[in-house]
Amino acid sequence: MKRTKIAELLRTEPTNTEVLVKGWVKAFRNNQFIALNDGSCAANIQVVVDAERVDAALTDRIKFGAAIGVRGKLIESQGKGQKVEVVAEELTIFGDCNPEEYPLQPKRQTLEYLREVAHLRFRTNTFGAVFRVRHALAFAIHKFFNDRGFYYMHTPVITASDAEGAGEMFHVTTLPLENIPRTEDGEVDFSKDFFERPANLTVSGQLEAELGALALSDVYTFGPTFRAENSNTTRHLAEFWMIEPEIAFADLHDDMDLAEDMLQYVINYVLEHCADDLQLLENRLLEEEKSKPQHERSPMPLVERLRFVVENKFERLTYTEAIEILKNSKPNKKGKFQFPIEGWGADLQSEHERYLVEKHFQKPVILTNYPAAIKAFYMRLDDPGENVPGPTVSAMDILFPGIGEIVGGSQREERYDVLLQKMREMNIPEEELYWYLDTRKFGSCPHAGFGLGFERLVQFVTGMGNIRDVIAFPRYPGNAEF
Ligand code: ATP
Ligand code: MN
After folding, report:
1. What's the mean pLDDT when you consider all of the chain?
2. Which ligand sits nearest to residue 407's alpha carbon?
3. pTM over 0.70
4. Which residue, among 396, 407, 413, 411, has the nearest Cα to 451 in the 3D structure?
5. Based on the domain organization, do 88 and 162 belong to the same domain?
6. Which ligand has the shortest distance to the CA of 225?
7. Residue 293: CB partners within 8 Å, gap ≥ 6?
8. How large is the C-alpha radius of gyration of the chain?
9. Domain boundaries, position 64
10. Ligand 1, closest atom to CA 242?
11. CATH number for the domain harbouring residue 85
């Protein structure tokens, strides 16, 4: 007989037909009622065991966490809260679970503790929901781009270009650490290394994605990226997944429209397809926030917050306008910011971003046209603006409530001369990036793109406070367990 998943059974009418279910025991009440879950959905199915017909030696082994199979009839449920249940005719124990030793217990356990047993935490209600929602978001992202004629591009994980974020990269080498070959002047001799040159794990697939866009028009990447930044925050991982679309014949406005459409589309997809999981996560969050002071609680319950983002346009304003708002803001005047806003030109800190999003606008915000000096070399230089104190670039960051920056993007500098000059000013090695410059020499065109941090999106949608709880096995300073 073929096994049916619980998600499917719960959608079926009670037909009195024979079914086979397999899963893990969530609870066993009165030696009679098993709550069984197989991870296919948030809900359990109720299995009714007739003690007279099942061997006592077997019922004794029905413990929290045990893997079992049940063959029986699917009938209309007598109990409240479920449409159907299974009356057991035959019971199989696949894997016993000793409650004395099992690290999971049928009670609330802290997220910090569950992180230490990340190999088992999938089995909790919370993490089951998180990983189902994570899947739905990934699927929706592919669907969104595919439906719009984008091509999914796989950019390399190992790269040799040292163009961006130097110092934040993980080296990739096969050189023996205990006996590193040296050149005559004492430098590491990379000609003896695997690639015969220094290599590292990618921090972004953007530069390669641009090459694809300048032939295929619209491409996107969705892959792992690595940053060796020593930031122990609830928003940073050393290994995270990034989505990087790149669009040809497009400017900053097209880029912002794409990002906003995409975020609204994927959040809406989850609202439509993961209602039970979102409800579970919303309840978890409400429970967690009970112990927090009022001002630290979210202004809206999870599902309402997601609806709000889907239904309202994001607020768009320039960096220069944002600085004016921040300069005149209450916390700035009262000296409440750790980094006071003194004038134009400084990078915004997360306290400033949060003020704009959570206090001033109370909705997602897109900040544009940042000072050129604080942004990457490949961002397109703006024409000088009126009342703008210095040169700016066509950059945009999308800021989300509770998260801060979720997307960073820009229109790319497509003019060869302007790009070359910028690279020289910023000490970007032009010989190494000859291939990038080539696209500006041959058939260059206006183009734009952005990077969306996948885990930050999953955090926002699930309401999980720590990024380490939305990826199966988080990597961060001091931790590469599992
Ligand atoms: P932040 O200022 O938050 O560190 P960033 O400016 O370094 O972000 P980008 O280099 O623009 O970010 O990367 C694009 C996106 O990738 C960000 O908007 C964010 O969503 C995500 N991201 C960046 N760094 C991390 C990280 N260490 N862990 C998880 N996501 C990240
Ligand atoms: Mn960063």
Report:
1. 95
2. 1
3. yes
4. 407
5. no
6. 1
7. none
8. 27
9. 6-102
10. 16
11. 2.40.50.140
